[in-house]
Amino acid sequence: DDLAELRQACDDAVAVLVACGPDRVVVVGTGDLAGDRDEAAGGTLARFGVDVRAGGPNDELPLSLTIGAWLLDRAGWTGPRTYSTGEPDTTGKVALLVMADGSAKRTTSSPGFLDERAEEFDGAIASALARGDAATLADLDLALGAELWAAGAPALQTLGRMTKDADITPQVRYDAAPFGVGYWVADWVLS
Where are the beta strands (DSSP E) in the chain? Predict the structure, then answer.
C-alpha cells in the first residue's frame, strides 16, 4: 500500500509511452549487463522475496531492467524491446523507459541511513526532470550519487546525454521518498 501511488504513476507513464506507438521500446537502467539485450531477455524478483518474472525467457536482467520489463508487461507491450545499461542505439521511432532511483539516504530509516546531502541531490534531479533540463542530468555528479546510494544516477546521466539537444515537454507524475529512497516518475515528450 505504501507504494500504490508510485505504481500507479509508473503505470500511467508507461501507458503514455506505449500509446505513442513506437517501433521499439528501449529500457535504460543500471546493473551488470554486458551489452544490450533484446526482448528475449527477462528477469525475476525472486531474490527479493517476490515471485514475479518479467520480460522474455532468458533470466539475465539486473533489477532496474527487470522492473522496466515488468512495467512493460503490465502495460501489455508485446513489441520489440532493447534493454541497456549503457548508451543504446536509438535510431528509428523509439520510446525510452529510463529506470533510475534516487538516493537511499533520505531518512534515518533509509537503507543507507541519513545523509544531509541526499535531499538536495534528489531535489536537483526532480527540478531537472520538471524543467526538461537534460544538460543538468548529463552533468550529474556520479561520485556523489554513489556516496548517496543513488544507483540510478548513471541511467539519469545517460538520459541527459541522449536528449541534450532535444526540445522537451516535461511532466512529473511522482516525486517522493517512500522508505527513505528517492523516486520520480516523469514523462518527457521530445519534439
Answer: 24-28, 37-38, 41-44, 53-55, 58-59, 81-84, 94-98, 168-176, 183-190
Q: What pTM does this model have? A: 0.95
Distance CA 56, CA 36 (A): 14
CB 166 within 8 A of CB 190: yes
**Count of C-beta atoms within a 10 Å radius of residue 42:** 21
What burial letters (b/e) apply to 126-146, b meaning 16+ CB within 10 Å?
bebbeebbbebbbebeeebbe
Grid coordinates of 60: 539475465
Q: Give the 3-state secondary structure of 30-77.
A: CCCCCCCEECCEEEECHHHCCCCEEECCEECCCHHHHHHHHHHHHHCC
Letter for the amino acid at 60? Answer: E
Q: Name the nearest CA neighbour of 13 among 190, 182, 179, 174.
A: 174
Q: Radius of gyration of the chain from Cα atoms?
A: 16
pLDDT in tens, 76-94: 999 999 999 999 999 999 9
Instruction: Provide the 10 A C-beta neighbour count for residue 32.
Output: 8
Q: Render pLDDT for 126-181 as a digit per residue (tens, 0 to 9).
A: 999 999 999 999 999 999 999 999 999 999 999 999 999 999 999 999 999 999 99
